[in-house]
Structure formats: structure tokens, C-alpha cells
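Repro case for the chain-ordering regression, as requested:
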Amino acid sequence: MLAYLGRRLAQLVPVLLLISLIVFLILHALPGDPAMLMLAGAEGGAVSAERIAELQEAMGLNDPLPVQYGRFLLGILRGDLGESIRLRTPVTEVILERFAFTIQLSLGGLACALLLGITTGVLSALRPNGWTDVLFSLMAYFGMSMPLFWLGLMLIFLFAFQLKWFPPSGSEGLDRLVLPSLTLGFVSAGAISRLTRSSLVEVLHEDYIRTAQAKGLARHRIVQRHALKNALIPVVTIVGLQFGGMLAGAVVTETVFSRPGLGRLVVQAILWKDYPLAQGIILFMAVLFLSANLLVDISYAWLDPRIRIH
Amino acid sequence: MFRRTLRTFGSQPQGVIGLGLLLVWLLLALSATQLVPYDPLEQGLPPARAGDSPVRQAPSSLYWFGTDELGRDVLSRVLAGAHISLALGFISVSIGLVAGSTLGLVAGFYGGWVDGIVMRAMDALLAFPGILLALVVIAALGTSIQNVMIAVGIAIVPQYARLVRGLCLTIRELAYVEAAHVVGSGPARLIFRHFLPNIVPPLIVLSTLQIGQAIIYGSALSFLGMGAQPPTPEWGLIAAKGRDFFRKAWWISTFPSLAILSVVLSFNLLGDGLRSLLDPRMRMVRAADQRNS
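-- result from build under test --
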């Protein structure tokens, strides 16, 4: 197990380096000059050429690119992602302040997706091609094809304005997490539902299920004790991937629900041309996604010893 | 052979429904300029009931989908936006398909260090979840609908590279391909005679599903203000503009969103229909997936 863990961590190093390189190159492929943007933001109006040159030198923008990249990497290792041009605070601080909102939303969305997806998937698989199966298939298709933002708007309209069950926006408290989580979860629920269904249908045709039936076990016990555990293995493998979908979906969902998370902030950062901030958040989200996948792979290897060997 | 394939496809309700829906949208997109009841950019259209405000009029016999916050006809705008979203889907998937398949083919065919470099690069791109990679590219290129197409195209490159590479590894070990190699077929002959015919069907399925996904991504980017700019009648942008009035004028955001939903649904249904049609070959995709993980 330790050897597997070491191997997985070693594989991450080149990927992390490449990610940092991609993110770094974006900042430098940009038309705007960071020094000028920074001064324009701070002092407003016309900015003298000397001031720009001065700041360029101070920020190390005149050094060759590899040197700058090296400094950027060293900064990351020290937890220093630079300073936000717009907010005038260290990027690391901003991220630490806000990432809890995005994590809560992603986990809430994931919980909704798993709950909805597995339940409907199991009910569909019990009677393939029955009316519940057709109904849930339709729902899954709609979920997978629906624009997130519209689902969010509809849920706000229905549950916040018409029924007044939940507040329409904001970030404090659990009741403000319900609607965004549902929005985010519904889209992934479709994929999970279909995967659960096909996997359970397949498992229910296995020999050991017939054995269980032959020895007279009740149907619900067969599903609960024998089939479901095996059928859910493929679902577990895509949880990490789905978490990434949640992080990406948070970008839209947080905007619709005006939640002060990282997803909404990264969009604002790009529109503000606040590149250090955008770069920091994107880097952080990529690392978060990689860690989630690693966690899933580890738990999977722990559950299934065969994987550790390969 | 072709007729039998057609009959198998006909027995799949989802594929037929998806294809029908898609054809309807293609027709609407192509004839939109003739079909639109009003100029999609004309503001302050006369109110359906005298004395009303021209903006945010509810759906009526005059304006089937109502009017938007500037008094433009929503139906005309939705129709005029059809070709934008469809083009976005086709163009960005073409970018992803060409670039990704080439990378995957090179990696899977040659193996070794080439494979190592290409696949690590793809892993790095895949570490940016979903729309985030497109956001990164937009940040670098600037906001416009053309850049959205490029950004979404780049964002789906790794999907194609992984699929094609996995397929190549599987195909390389097929007995008849090995035999062809042994009797001295060159790389060009191997690729065109043996690899491509096995790779194309799964690529068609993936591309159909990806077009739907690309349209969702593209409209989301426009909704966030990173894509099409006003007054373009892009669906995500129309929905974004209607967002602030959703309580009192639900139709502004709802009709373009329903358009997105039905177009994406048509691609998803068609893709699934094609998948079951090509099922025997899809076994190879599953084998390829296992190799990648």
C-alpha cells in the first residue's frame, strides 16, 4: 500500500509542474503589462513611463522567462501566489478566506448528486424498461442537457420567491446551501443514475445472484446485501471526476446564487484582468481536483487489492 | 449491410428522436433569416396592448416568446442565435477532434517516451476541471465568441487524446494487425488500413456527445460574460441579460435556455443511439478505458 502511495505521489510531480507552467505562461502571453495594470489600478489616470519601468524592474518583469518561472515556483512552494491587483491583498489570503464556500457547495452538490443518482439508478435497474425506468431515464437526459444557470434561476424562482422555503442567495447558514447544491447535484445525478442502473442490471445477471435467489433469499435482501455493493464500485471510481465537475459547476452556480466562493471570484478576476488572482485560484482549484482524485484512487486501491499491483 | 445498420438504428427510439430534433434545429438555424418575425436587434418594438411598455412584454400572439429588457423580440433572437450555438458546437469539437486524435494517434502508435510526454501533458490539462481550462484560455485570448470556440476546443483535446491512444494500444495487439506489421506494412499503411477504421466509430459517438457538451460550456461562458458580447443574440448571453428580471419576466431567460436544453438533448440522444448501434465496437472503448486507468 505504501509503495502504491509513493508511486502515485511521484506521478503527480510532473503533472503539477506542467500545470504551474501552463498557468504561468498564460500570465505572460497576455497583452496587458502587469506593472501598468497595477499602477493604473492604484494611481488612476495617466501613468508615467518611468513609474512603469521602475515597477517592472521591482517586480522582476525584465528578467528572462525561465528565471521568472523559477521565482514563481519558489513562491508557490512558500505559499506565496503574489498580490491581487484589484483587492490589494495577498492571493493566498483571499483564497484561504473564500475556499470554504466553494468546498461546502461542492460537497453539498456531490451529496445531492449521489443521493439522487444512486436512488433513481437502483429503482430503474430493479425494473428495466418499466415506467419508473423510463421516467428516470428521461430525467437523467434532461439533467445532462440542461444549462446549469437556468436550473438555478428556476429553483430560486420556485423555492425562494414563490414558496419562500429557502433564501434566494447569500452564503451564511445551511439553508442557503440547499438550492445551489441541488442545482449543482441535479446535473451530475443524471450521469450517476445511468451508471448505477447499467452496473446494477449487469450485476443482477451474475451467477452469485442466481445462487442467492436459489437459496431463497428475498429480493430486497439480494439487492442490499449482494448486488449493490458490487454495482457501486464503478460509481465510486467516478466520484473524484464528479468532484471536479462540481468545482467547475461552482463557477456558474456561485454566480447565479451570488455566493462569495472561488468560482465566482475567478470569473471576476478574469473580467478585472487581475491575473495574479485568476492564476492563483485556477492553480488552487486544479490542485484541489488532483487531490480529490488521488484520495478516490487511494480509497479504491485500499478496497480492491488488485489495483495496488498494477 | 447499410440497410441493416439503418434498421438497427431505427429500432432505437432515443437515436431517432435525437436525430429528428437535431434536423429540426438545423433547418431552423439555416432558415432563421427568413423565419424571424422581427429584426432580432430591433429595440422598443410596439407593445401588444396599447399603452403598455415595449420592454419585457409577456408572451402574446404578437410576440410568442415575449420581449426582452430592451424591447426586442425573444423568439427572433432565439432563432437568430441557433446558428451561433450550433457552429460553436461543431467548430470547437472539430478543433478538439483533430488536435486530440492526432496527439492520441502519435502517442498510441509510437509508444515509449513520445507517449510519456504526450500523456503527461494531457494529464496536466485534465487537472483543470471542465470549464476551468476554457476559462484559462479565455483569460489569455480575451472575451469573444471565436475565442470561446478555441477555448472549448482546447478544453476537450485531452478527451480525444486519451480515447484514441487507448484504442491504439488495444488495436496494436490485435492478431491481424500484428500480422500486418510482421509482413512489413509501413506505418502509413498500418494507420490508414487498420487503425483508422477501428478508431472512427467510437470517435463519431464521442464527438456527438461532445458537441452537446461544448454547446453547454459555450453558453455558460457567454452567460458569465466571457463569450459573445451584446447585442449578439447568443443564447447564454440572452439568458444572462434576462437573469435580473427572472421574477417578473421569466420568459427572457427561459426560452433561450429551453433552446439550449433541446439542442443539447438532441445530441445526447443521438450520441447514445449511435453508441448502442456501434456496440460491438464499443467493447474496445471499454478495454481502452481500462488501459488508461
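Ordering looks correct now. Chain A has a mean pLDDT of 84.
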